[in-house]
Automatic annotation (TrEMBL):
The lineage of its organism: Bacteria, Bacillati, Actinomycetota, Actinomycetes, Mycobacteriales. PANTHER family: THIOL:DISULFIDE INTERCHANGE PROTEIN DSBE. It is found in: Cell envelope. It comes from Nocardia thailandica. This is TlpA family protein disulfide reductase. Signal peptide: none annotated.
C-alpha cells in the first residue's frame, strides 16, 4: 500500500472535518442534557405540590381567636369584580361568599401573607383602626398564601384578631387587577364597586383613616 500523498493526511485529521466533528459532538451533548428523563427535575413538583400544607384543626383556629367572618345580610346582594368569589374563613374554615358578605356597607380588604414584613407592621394598625371605625365599615384580611397554618400563627403572634379569609390562589388580587406584591388594600364601596386599590403599606392609623375618608367618604375619629 502506498503512503498518502503529502498534505492529504488521514481524512479525520483534516481541519474542516475535525471542526465538523467537534460541532457534532457539542450538539449531541446539548441534546442529551436537555432530553427529558424519568425522575429528572422537570418532573419534580414545586414545593407546594410536594409538601401540601396540613389540614387546619378546630383547635388551631380557636387558638388564633379571630373574629367571625362577615355574613350576608338578609335581602342584600352585591356586585362588582369580587362577585362569585368564595373563600374559606380563617376563623372556622366555612366558605364565605365575599361580595355578598361585604355588600351593604363600605369595606377595607387587606391582602397580606405570613412572610411579608411590611404586612406584619401594618396589621396592628388595621386592628386599631377597625376598633375605632365600629360597625360603619367592614375590615377584612385576606391571607394570600397556601399555608393557612402559618398565617394563623402569624396573626396570633401579632395579636391581630380581625376577621379574615384564606386566598391561596390570589383570586382577590387577580379580580381587582392588583400587582403581585404585598401588602395591598382594596377599598370597596357598599355596592361592590372598587373605590381604590392601595399598593403600599399604611404608615399608621391616621394614614388609614385619611385614605378611607378620601376614597370611601367614611370618617373615623383617630
Amino acid at each position: 500500500m502506498s503512503d498518502p500523498a503529502p498534505g492529504d493526511g488521514v481524512w479525520w485529521t483534516r481541519p474542516a472535518v475535525r471542526w465538523g466533528l467537534v460541532a457534532l459532538i457539542a450538539i449531541l451533548a446539548v441534546a442529551v442534557a436537555l432530553w427529558p428523563r424519568d425522575g429528572d427535575d422537570a418532573d419534580v413538583p414545586g414545593p407546594t405540590a410536594a409538601h401540601p400544607p396540613a389540614a387546619i384543626s378546630d383547635a388551631q383556629r380557636a387558638a388564633a381567636g379571630l373574629a367571625p367572618c362577615p355574613r350576608p345580610a338578609a335581602g342584600v346582594t352585591g356586585s362588582g369584580p369580587l362577585a362569585g368569589l368564595s373563600l374559606g374563613c380563617l376563623a372556622d374554615g366555612a366558605p364565605v361568599d365575599l361580595v355578598a358578605a361585604l355588600a351593604g356597607k363600605p369595606a377595607l380588604v387587606n391582602l397580606w401573607a405570613y412572610w411579608c414584613g411590611p404586612c406584619a407592621t401594618e396589621l396592628p394598625h388595621l386592628q386599631e383602626f377597625a376598633g375605632r371605625a365600629g360597625p360603619d365599615l367592614t375590615v377584612l384580611t385576606v391571607h394570600t398564601d397556601p399555608d393557612e397554618a402559618k398565617g394563623l400563627a402569624r396573626l396570633a403572634g401579632l395579636g391581630v384578631t380581625l376577621p379574615g379569609v384564606s386566598d391561596p390562589q390570589a383570586k382577590v388580587r387577580t379580580a381587582v387587577g392588583a400587582p403581585a406584591v404585598l401588602p395591598v388594600t382594596v377599598l370597596v364601596r357598599a355596592d361592590g364597586s372598587i373605590a381604590s386599590v392601595e399598593v403600599r403599606a399604611f404608615s399608621g392609623v391616621d394614614d388609614i383613616a385619611d385614605t378611607v375618608s378620601r376614597e370611601l367618604g367614611v370618617r373615623v375619629a383617630v
